Every structure is written in C-alpha cells, then in structure tokens.
Amino acid sequence: xxxxxxxxxxxxxxxxxxxxxxxxxxxxxxxxxxxxxxxxxxxxxxxxxxxxxxxxxxxxxxxxxxxxxxxxxxxxxxxxxxxxxxxxxxxxxxxxxxxxxxxxxxxxxxxxxxxxxxxxxxxxxxxxxxxxxxxxxxxxxxxxxxxxxxxxxxxxxxxxx
Length: 161
Fold this sequence. Notes:
The chain has a six-stranded antiparallel sheet. It is built from four helices and six strands, in the order H-E-E-E-E-H-E-E-H-H. About 40% of the residues lie in helices and about 25% in strands. By secondary structure, the protein is α+β, with helices and mostly antiparallel strands. Helix 2 crosses helix 3. It is globular and about 45 Å long.
C-alpha cells in the first residue's frame, strides 16, 4: 500500500468521507471546516493537509490579514498560514513521514492543530484577545501553548455536544 491508500483508509476508519478533487487531492469535513489532503506521489514521505480558503484576501484587508497570519504563526507550532493564489488564506500542516505507525494519532493531531490554527486566526483577524496570552510577549511557552490549546479543544468539544 502506498501513502495515499494508507491515509485514505485511515481517514475512512476515523469516520471521514473523502471526496476526490482530481489532481488537487481529497477533501473531507470536520467541525464545519473543509480539509484537503494533498498527496505527493513523487514523495511518499511528504504529508500535507490544509484548510483551503480560510479567509478571503482583498486589497483592502491585505495588511490586516498579513498581521493576523504573522501573529498566529508566532503563537502556534506545527502549522503555517499562507496566501494562496493571491486571494485566500490557507492553513497548512506539512510533515515528513518516517513511518506509517500511529497514523490515526498523527492525523488526529494534524486535524486538531489545523482547527486551532483556524480559530486563532479568526480571533486575531477579528481583534479578539486570546485567553491566557498577551500580545506583549512575542512567544507563548510550550506549557502555556499546551494549556491554551487544551482549553480551546475543550471548548470546541463542549460546543459540539
């Protein structure tokens, strides 16, 4: 089995319905967000999952978007935000696979980190304060980040129930 088959099988086992989008990859939905798994058949060790079209970028909001992307990226680990096709913010997680062990755990981690990235970006773009984090400090410590992410995930799970 190749990487694409293993990932798709695992996503299916996790309860996600994937839809193929031609050469773009496979889309699946979690918590009202569309995720895109983009296999690279030339590099079996490269794993990329994204939330495409997170936010529209215009000439009027470009500076605010760049600031929110910058602040979010400084605050969080593992994920990155970028402007794709000049018009939309995407959240991405890229990973170098050294084995296919614990794929379920890895995919769950990636999906949750991307969800938190989207939420933090939305909070930043809307000027909301991130609880437990002051904009005066450039970085959040690992312990603070873990605690903040756990609070956000707990809140997300409570909203879902």
